[in-house]
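User: hey, got a sec? need Ribosomal protein uS12 methylthiotransferase RimO folded
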Amino acid sequence: MSTNPPDLRPDLAPRARLSDTPRAGQPTIGMVSLGCPKALVDSERILTRLRAEGYGISPDYAGADAVIVNTCGFLDSAKAESLDAIGEALTENGKVIVTGCLGAEPDYIREHHPRILAVTGPQQYEQVLDAVHASVPPDPDPFIDLLPATSVSLTPRHYSYLKISEGCNHKCKFCIIPDMRGKLASRPARAVLREAEKLVENGVRELLVISQDTSAYGTDTRDRDHKHPIIPLARDLGSLGAWVRLHYVYPYPFVRDLVPLMADPANGVLPYLDIPFQHAHPDTLKRMARPAAAARTLDEIAAWRATCPGITLRSTFIVGYPGETEAEFQTLLDWMDEAQLDRVGCFQYENVAGARSNALPDHVPDAVKQDRWNRFMAKAQAISEAKLAAKVGQTLQVIVDEVDSDAATCRTMADAPEIDGNLFIDRNFETLNPGDVVSVTVDEAGEYDLWGNISTSA
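Assistant: Yep! Here you go:
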C-alpha cells in the first residue's frame, strides 16, 4: 500500500507489467515502455504481433534475446529519460531496438547510442517487427505458438486504455507531438467498439479512452452521421457495462453535450473530464497558441457542474512559460481559486527541440519556475484536501486495483489509475480481488487519498 505522490508527472502511463513465462528455447523479446498511455497502447500492439509470431515476452533484460525501448520525446527531460533507458538496455542486454516518439530523431539517438540495432518512429509497427526479425529470427512451435493469440496487455487485467485516434490538428507552440505523430487520424467507430467489446468480454471493468484530442474524434472524416462523433461513441461505449473514463478532452463548447451522459450512472460514462487547460491568463494562452478565453472557460465549468454536480475535473498546467510575468502567474492562482478543479498536474516549462516556443523572448529563470511550481502545487493541494475532506461520510463506488497484506488499494470514479488519488480499505478487505467494484463509506481523507470501509448496506 502506498499513497499517491503529489508531484507525479501527469504525462506518464502506469508501469508496464509483463507476466509471460516463455517456453524453453523460445525466442524472447523484452519491452521498456516510456511516456504516455498512448505509447503504452503502441507497446501492447507490438507485443501482441510478436507473440502471435511465436515470440515469448521477457519481463527482464537477462531473459530477452533483444529489447525494444519505446521512447518519449514530449519534453527534453523525457528525452533524457529515454536516452538513459536505451543506455541501460544496452548495458544489461546489448541488443536494443528503439521506437516511439523520440524515434522520429534517429540521428539524435545514434549520436548518443551508436550500438543500437535499429530506430523506428511512432506507430511504425511493421518496421519494428522487421528489426526484430533481423536480429532475433522467429522460431515458432506450430502446435503452441501459432494459435490465435489474445492481445498482450501491459496494464492490470481489469482496466485497459482504448486509443481512438492518432495525431492532433492543434498548433500549440510548446508541443511537437503533431510533428511526430501527424494530423488527427480517427479510428473507425466500429473498430473502436469491436475492440472495446472484446476487452469487456475478457474481464476489463474500466475503459480509459485516450487520444491526443479526444473531443475532436471523428471530425477528420467527411461522411459522418454526427457533427461531433465523440458523443455517440461515448454513448455506445457506455452501454458495454464497464466504466468509461474520458481523457484529453479539449474544451470545445460542445463538451456541454457530453456532460449529460455523465449525469446518469446508467449511461456508464464516468462523471470525469480530463481537460488540459494549460494556463488561465489570456496573454499567456495567446503565446501558447491556445484559446484565450479563460473567463468563458469558468462559465463552461459552471455549466458542466450544473448539469452534473458530481463531475470530477482534472487538468494539467504549465508554469514558467516564456514571457509569463508574476501578474500572469497570479491570475492563474486566482483562476484556480474560482475553478476549484478536483485533480491537477503541473509542468515547469521546458524547451523542446523543434518547438516554436523556444524562440519566444523573456524565458523565465529556472529558480522562478521552481518557485511558481511550488506555489501552484500548494494551491492545488489545498483545494484537493478540502474537496476530499467533504467526502468523509459519503458512500462511493470504488474499483479495486490491488490487494496486499495491509489493505486493498482502490479508486473512486474520480480517480484515474496512477495519475490521481487512491482509496484504501484497511479492514475486512481480505475477500476482495482486483477488478471488484464495491461500495465504500469514506471515514478519513488526506491531501490526495481517501480511506474507508465496505458499506454495510452494499
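Quick note: Residues 366-389 form the longest helix (24 residues). Let me know if you need anything else on Ribosomal protein uS12 methylthiotransferase RimO.
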